Amino acid sequence: MKKLTYGMVGGGPGSFIGEAHRRSISIDSQAQLVAGCFSRSIDKCRITGAELGIDEDRCYASYEEMAKAEAARPDGIDFAVIVVPNVSHYPACKAFLEAGINVSCDKPLCFTSEQGEELVRLAKEKNLLFMVTYTYTGHVTAKHIRQYIADGKLGKIRNVMAEYPQGWLAYEGEWGGKQGEWRCDPKQSGGVNCLGDLGTHVENAVAMMTGLKIKRVLAKMDVVVPGRVLDDNDLVMVEYEGGAIGTYWTSQFAIGADNDLAVRIYGDNGSILWKQTESEKVTIITRDGTTIERHRGNGGIEASAAKYGRLPSGHNEGWLESMGNLYRSLIECIRAKKDGTFTPDMIDFPTVEDGLEGVRFVEACVKSNNNGNVWVDM
Amino acid sequence: MKKLTYGMVGGGPGSFIGEAHRRSISIDSQAQLVAGCFSRSIDKCRITGAELGIDEDRCYASYEEMAKAEAARPDGIDFAVIVVPNVSHYPACKAFLEAGINVSCDKPLCFTSEQGEELVRLAKEKNLLFMVTYTYTGHVTAKHIRQYIADGKLGKIRNVMAEYPQGWLAYEGEWGGKQGEWRCDPKQSGGVNCLGDLGTHVENAVAMMTGLKIKRVLAKMDVVVPGRVLDDNDLVMVEYEGGAIGTYWTSQFAIGADNDLAVRIYGDNGSILWKQTESEKVTIITRDGTTIERHRGNGGIEASAAKYGRLPSGHNEGWLESMGNLYRSLIECIRAKKDGTFTPDMIDFPTVEDGLEGVRFVEACVKSNNNGNVWVDM
Amino acid sequence: MKKLTYGMVGGGPGSFIGEAHRRSISIDSQAQLVAGCFSRSIDKCRITGAELGIDEDRCYASYEEMAKAEAARPDGIDFAVIVVPNVSHYPACKAFLEAGINVSCDKPLCFTSEQGEELVRLAKEKNLLFMVTYTYTGHVTAKHIRQYIADGKLGKIRNVMAEYPQGWLAYEGEWGGKQGEWRCDPKQSGGVNCLGDLGTHVENAVAMMTGLKIKRVLAKMDVVVPGRVLDDNDLVMVEYEGGAIGTYWTSQFAIGADNDLAVRIYGDNGSILWKQTESEKVTIITRDGTTIERHRGNGGIEASAAKYGRLPSGHNEGWLESMGNLYRSLIECIRAKKDGTFTPDMIDFPTVEDGLEGVRFVEACVKSNNNGNVWVDM
Amino acid sequence: MKKLTYGMVGGGPGSFIGEAHRRSISIDSQAQLVAGCFSRSIDKCRITGAELGIDEDRCYASYEEMAKAEAARPDGIDFAVIVVPNVSHYPACKAFLEAGINVSCDKPLCFTSEQGEELVRLAKEKNLLFMVTYTYTGHVTAKHIRQYIADGKLGKIRNVMAEYPQGWLAYEGEWGGKQGEWRCDPKQSGGVNCLGDLGTHVENAVAMMTGLKIKRVLAKMDVVVPGRVLDDNDLVMVEYEGGAIGTYWTSQFAIGADNDLAVRIYGDNGSILWKQTESEKVTIITRDGTTIERHRGNGGIEASAAKYGRLPSGHNEGWLESMGNLYRSLIECIRAKKDGTFTPDMIDFPTVEDGLEGVRFVEACVKSNNNGNVWVDM
């Protein structure tokens, strides 16, 4: 089958996330990088392009130029991957949508719900696919949980305890390198740091697994490490439509925590425990208290999730595979669009609508915090 | 060394907690049960007394009678153990204090801070020892954490995440037996269920380990399982004096959770993770992210904690030993009082003042919840 | 119910195991220590006796004297607890059996199978109860495994992997204190160190759980830490009657290992994993690969095992409770003998026959090792 | 940098291992598949080739043809990847070596040490690079252990306990699909099943981590599941040069085990515990018993290992990345050979000599087992 082609905005030298996207896409060899605007400087962009084997004429000085030029080519890219700092997500996504090119954008989608709504509208209007790369929802075990709950096996959900602590920004006077610097800078990160980076992952993971819609939030956003100006620890009380409750915690100074996203879901028919750092397994407790550990790749994993596995159980799949699963679905959908076989239920990745939910969640939390930790409707 | 003597109020047939106290005290063979008011019926009381080898004339129809009679005997009990439902804690404790007898009372201490303050006052006035049996603080590893933090090894504490989920009351239409019934009954439990039972354990464990004082709380107390009238899931945001923050979660419908008290403490010099279900170990992460697991009984455990160990490392000590450690200190203190060698720094158990803190914590949470989840000063 | 009475041989100052037995018996308050020969010196014996509240006339200079004197008293002890170094197990047990007194002896039972056979014969002849305190088989979860397998749920057993590593004797020039000294001394330990101390635990734990009989062994007993003269690391290949195979590993220089007895049993219908350091749980994998974790105290634990629990699940029981479970059964049997209601199927503790099996196992291993690691029939 | 090119022998439809190699190589985008003999049928080969984007004229009917043709091309492949059943490893490798093409071959290298020695000789004579893909040694944590031990931090190694149980062939009458069928077939697998497949992984992992050389072995190779004719459970006692001892266990009927390769190494200065199913961490116990858990990506990982990490700690890397690390080094070495900058110390992958050691290990074990479980020198 012919490979699709894609272009990247961002992902120049020293970029963790750009390289990670490229590696994830490579695993399945279904799409090839052919264009890019890797840096703001055209010279740097061309150096990266050369390293990646990109033709010089498809190395662009700006994403606007790239969007227009690729749209004009008969062999233009099938999708654009946006992996720049948060501040540029919105204009970059907009440029590609307007040019009629499918988009994959890193999370969080953008800064304001107005921006997000416009992107939702544009994608719909142009009939384009738009993925927001909430990586963790790509895990086979996360998909298993979604199916298990959708099938009613957990019963009515009562409470969700979810968290994402990290420790890399725990040190006074240290800024966590280039990435930490822009995250802690109000101008580049949109006035929200920890909640935007980690809280949106929590929000999305819970939404994806449970299908619950948030009704209102009460948030406490703390600035703890001396010298910081943006939140580095957040606690959000959540009430969902239908009566369930939840709590989301994120932190950047939890020394010893790596990327410890964890979700615990309590239903009236049992419980589910999941940690992304041990994403090869999921713990399910049935109504009678029996604790069952399911491994990715073993029987017992729901078919809609198991189909994403690439290796036998016990041969760990990790972050790259999880991200790769998102791209697998995006690429299948793009192919289907080309073939005329696409139907919306084929989408098995976080969409622009999911991205907008994340932005709305952050906005509501900020409002709650600014008003003294009061309840704010979504 | 001559054994001390004690009497028990409560602990009749079917009582889990009374028997557990007796077993815990037995481990060290330093005190002997010689009197009791085990049931409200004198006949039942005498049956239990006979089974436990208590002389019939020291089986009492009421705690008031018991307190007076034992105080009058030349060989009266050295201390009274109060293990009745919460509603009777206050009057029973008061009776023994007024009679001049040392008291060990199960937690929570009582219903109102007025009651608690009176018990504090009485204990001081009568110069008596008063232990509140927050069992989990007796663990060697809990004591290790306290010393580690007191010595400044964790640096300044920034955040505390603590929780105590259980699953035994998850089932609609089921009441968890006799014990669940009185806990879910406003009259017997003081109008608070989960937070009084489990939240006070969390509050005490954190206070004991960290030494932090709560400044204010914002609490959400939910009644979730259909048919309940009292809280069965509680989430409390905490601010401590000095600027640290915390979150306490308790639940009774977390299917699969047994007695999963867990405390995570994040300082600017490292982190501590502790679970009472794995109380033989404590995880300490140092500033540079090195994760160290310490086992009770290995070198590296602080001397003030290690001295409570009874068995080599790897030969697990459990709940009974933890409770036994509280009684070990109480008994040492009573002996020292008799010898005239007592000094207050010998006390290594939760006191009536600690019990009062628990009552105040519950009161502040209830007020916060009743007023719509607002901040309430302690 | 009237308490039984017991006497102790050994358990003087600094004895870990004597005190541990006393604590374990205390938990249930069903038997009282009333006599003892705690040390070889009558003066030291009396000092310990006084501390333990034993009448001076029941503090004895030798176990022979004690056995005779107690047998002659109308209120003589119901059972004797033998907790001396291995070399004295045989003569001490013999003395009490000959005096008509029930015996509880620490493991290993004795040095030679001839001695063991004599003790078996004597116990039978005198119609006495004889317990050998393989502590770990007292755990509720160990009893659960036994029942699960006996009921055929694991299918036909194919392979057993069992081990007991420790680390306390890892250090050249250090001897692990008084206890290590006698264990490493051929005269006091019977010419076998690690295999006698730990290998017998492994042998007994597997035999108890699986019911398998060893047909033959091939053993490699190594002396590794410089300066040692007895084995400190042992590897035994095992073949059982009926075709199953097994491997037992023990070591005393596995730094970081506490008392890490672990048993893994593989049947044709599933697997069982058990660690005594996490004895509150047992992992059962069913035929289809589903991994189930059972907690002591939860439903799903076999009734014949669950009845030994003293605390709700999640309130850990440990080593003392496990040992206490052995004594619970011994005491029930002695009471039943007194009542005339005893039947052999009431015995739920390791017997003198089990102890003899351990001695035979050690003898076969030594023979195998001495002959160059060859197969030796049991 | 220009991509290298490679060809593949094997890896047709339904091949797990061929696709896994391709994915692993893709992650770093440093080499491109351009030729192949994917199946024995040229038609099937071309179908796979087309799917993978290979030119039809580089789809070959046999590996002999492929070796010759590629050697003759000016743009011939830089290396060949051999992923056929074991029986064809030797002739296929030989063909490419003779044609002057670098080789990457799946393990075990071949059936006899004579074959292995010839491959070693050929590689040397032709001055070619030859990698044997023992995947697990590619893990960052495995490399960390190697450096830690090489630097003397563990002291003198005393004992190694290593194992690799699986459960997929536990079922009587079931053969584990196509892969299980050839493994259980003496003709295709070389007369050894479990030990050849899993035992060689254990042997290599221990050799790589510790640097120890095996002096002699005593092996017990059992055929357990009814209907099997080759070993499905193996226990090997090992003695190393220099005095250390070890035990290797492998099994294919350990229900619940996925790919549970685990290595425990005991030195006189501490211990190391490692599991490939939790390969993101390694547990190190220092001489004083302190248990330290190191995470890939955290500080504290040796630089020679850490450099292979692609993602921040907590974003799991798995099997593909581990295999990818082997290829990363192979590709660097090939590039250096082309540049004339190659030195042998650049090799950081298992070599043909390591593969030969595996074959010798299997031969010695088979001899030991055939002669009644006796010691056999390597």
Describe this structure in words.
Four copies of one chain form a homotetramer. In chain A, the strands form two sheets. A nine-stranded mixed β-sheet of chain A has the order 13-12-11-10-6-9-8-7-14. The first copy, chain A, has helices at 16-28, 42-51, 63-72, 89-98, 113-126, 140-150, 177-183, 186-189, 194-210, 303-306, 319-339, 352-370; strands spanning 4-10, 31-37, 79-83, 102-105, 130-132, 157-165, 214-222, 233-240, 245-251, 262-267, 270-275, 281-286, 291-295, 376-377. In chain A, helix 5 (113-126) links the parallel strand 4 (102-105) and strand 5. With 378 residues, the first copy, chain A, is an alpha/beta fold. The first copy, chain A, contains twelve helices and 14 strands. In chain A, helix 1 (16-28) crosses helix 11, helix 5 runs antiparallel to helix 12 (352-370) and helix 6 crosses helix 9 (194-210). In chain A, 37% of the residues lie in helices and 22% in strands. Chains in contact: A-B, A-C, A-D, B-C, B-D, C-D. The interface between C and D is large, with 40 and 40 residues. Strand 13 of chain A pairs antiparallel with strand 13 (291-295) of chain C.
